[in-house]
Amino acid sequence: MDQPGYIILSRLSAQMRATQVLANNIANADTPAYRAERPLFATRLSCAAAGEAPIAYSLDRATWRDTSSGPLATTGNPLDVALRSEGFFVVETEGGERYTRAGRFTLDPTGRLTDQEGNAVLGAGGTPIAFGPGDTRIEIQGDGTVRSENGVVGRLRIVRFADPQRLRAEGGRLYAADGPPEDMPRPQLVQGAVEGSNVSPITEITRLTQDVRDFELATQFAEREGDRQQNAIDRILRRRS
Asked: What's the pTM?
């Protein structure tokens, strides 16, 4: 493959990656507290012969996460909790602690507060928040304190990270971290509400449409380049015959 072929191949690879990221965003437009992802591309210049312009290749550098908050939707469910501030809830999974902003919680048969996957929601002491049979009127205050008619049950553990971009997404709701988080002393919680996805479906579909068109143009260029090379080979073979 000559240089034009490598250039267009790098472009096709970049367009495919961008399309995959956008498609994943659209699929999670209704996922509570989902954060949209964006691909980051760069141009790599390759040395050319003297007097010629350098050759530019597309380079897939990374994917970054849009950390802007999603809209809050009021549900009236006392077990739904939204974060108005930065930070994450902490849940206990089989793989260890994970972090989420999806505060659509429920109670398991033993009275533990859990997320939608059944993971226990942890309190400030690192133990699960659990209610007794007589705890029927649940109140979650703005600082994370959990109460019932029988008194204080615990306090939700809310944490933050110096660099949220380093978190690794596990599905649409959970994140894993390599280092320990920092506990937030003054979080801002809203009971009876959930944070929605920060994905704008119309914007994402518009971007996806443009990326698909760019991919088609790149594909057409590759096909024309292939035809050009084949025609050149055919002419050379005819001259030698």
From this structure: 0.79
